[in-house]
Amino acid sequence: MAPTRAETALARTRRARRIDRVLAERYPDARCELDFRNPFELLVATVLSAQTTDVRVNLTTPELFARWPDAQAMAGADPSELEEVLRPTGFFRAKARSLTGIGHALVERFGGEVPARLEDLVTLPGVGRKTANVVLGNAFGVPGITVDTHVQRLSHRLGYTTSDDPVVIEAELGALLERRDWTMASHRLIFHGRRTCFARRPACGACPVASLCPSAGIGETDPVRAEAMLKG
Fold it and tell me: Which pTM was predicted?
């Protein structure tokens, strides 16, 4: 839902920051739900998360990293063997090409290490701003806003933006929130989207930010029924 005409930019900023504080209380364990031990593993897992769930990725990556643990190993992976391991994640042929391409690029241009700059990350095969911001925020501690489907949906419902362009949404969210909060605010929005503010029918009656949301009431408003809908 678009911001109301009566809401000033300052009021919207204050509301967005209040919403983030409330969501921080609701989801104190908000975090990246992909399993990883280093920047390379997070980069690969995030690429694999396209069109599938984090749970599915986490079931796939133990074997993947046992066989191809770093950029050099990934660059030399046999395509058919890699595809077979990635098959459960969907779009496995395209993902295999991206991963071997990433391996080659990291070895040839970055000494086998994942770069810690957005402008470098987005030059890697299959890596856009969303993936780059996940890696920056969670592997390197560089604040970044991750605009996935949940963040995009909630940004509209909460009246933060009217745009469907992820780059525009990222910029508009960044203008509303303190830079130091960007990474965690993204996690909190994603948690809220997965657990309460569902795409088809949000649990409005059990939503902690309903009083601050211009879209409140579009889903289940009965508190008992809404509470029963919550996940996690």
Answer: 0.92
